[in-house]
Amino acid sequence: MRENLFYGCGTALVTPFRGRRVDYDALEKLIDWQIDGEADALIVLGTTGEPCTVTDPERGAIIECAVARVAGRVPLYVGTGSNCTRTAAERSVEAQRLGADGLLVVTPYYNRASRAGLVEHYLSVADSVDIPIIVYNVPARTGVNLPPEVMRELAKHPLLRGLKEACPDPAHVMRVYEAMGDAAAVYCGNDDQALLHMALGARGVISVTANVAPRQMHALALNYLRGEVNASRALQFSLLPLMRALFSEVSPIPVKAALSMMGMIENTLRLPLTPLEAEKAAILRRELERLRLIGREA
Predict the structure, then answer these.
(1) What would the pLDDT profile of 95-129 be if each residue is shown by its tens digit?
(2) Which member of 77, 164, 224, 256 is catalytic?
(3) Which of 32, 209, 215, 287 has the most C-beta neighbours closer than 10 Å?
């Protein structure tokens, strides 16, 4: 089996904004807080990082900021996917040049590529860099569900070393682990299915919930890997109501609301995303209070 990318929980970080600008001070504080909270890896400019509304100059500055602040303390991955193969390759080259440890590359969205197109897309990106790539399957976002057999084929490339699997269908998830074996590291991409994936052989989870609960998500994954299944199960069930609240709207709308309630960032998104509505925000606040991630209001 090839060397794994990481074990445990990688946090899919938000991109904090202040007004119309990226809030680099807040990003640095988030990175330090995540590492202090035992995050096993960090991912910037993934889905949670609002990459579609970040400009090219901002992308470079975010990567530079993250690389400098992480300073090798944990692996840092950069989301570089696009529905244009040339763009994905160019972004990947830039991320490598700026110091990324690895890449997270989502399946090309909207174009609805064939199996052959998916293979050629990823091989083209992988051939452009010298750092490991985690393939990202998230059909709810892309309209494409990566067949496990295609990922098995991709894993023959020495740099296509991981899969973030975020298809919610348990039958598909089962086929993924059946097909992959030891061909590549598989990571859970849906927080509410972390325990299921760990039972099937996941090496960890790439998590939205870890933005607000890094220590708990780290423990959920590591406990299972250490054989402490009951402790992992207890954490999964304890966190499920928070996870549901964090996905009551499309991410990162709720997680940014949560981080704002925690005093970590300004609750600012870029259109077409808008802030969480009051009723859902109230439920989210109650879950943060229940888990003592924020203090209870008087």
Answers:
(1) 999 999 999 999 999 999 999 999 999 999 999 99
(2) 164
(3) 209
Catalytic, out of 77, 109, 122, 136: 136
CA dihedral 258, 276, 285, 52 (to 10 degrees): -20
pTM value > 0.85: yes
Per the domain annotation, does 284 fall within a domain?
no
Q: Kindly state whether residue 243 falls inside one of the protein's structural domains.
A: no
Q: Which tens digits make up the pLDDT trace of 155-176? A: 999 999 999 999 999 999 999 9
User: Would the pLDDT of 76 be above 60?
Assistant: yes
Give CA–CA dist 65/32, Å, rounded: 12
CA distances from 100 to 10, 129, 189, 275 (A): 14, 11, 20, 30
* Dist CA 261 CA 151 (whole Å): 39
How many Cα atoms occupy the beta-carbon half-sphere of 281 within 13 Å?
14
Query: How many domains, in total, are found in the chain?
Result: 1
Would you state the pLDDT for residue 298?
41
Does 265 map to a domain? no
Does any domain span residue 280?
A: no
Distance CA 108, CA 173 (A): 20
Answer yes or no: 136 catalytic. Answer: yes
Report the CATH number at residue 83. 3.20.20.70
The pLDDT of 8-31, averaged and rounded, is 98
Residue 280 annotated as catalytic: no
**What range does the domain containing 116 cover?**
8-228
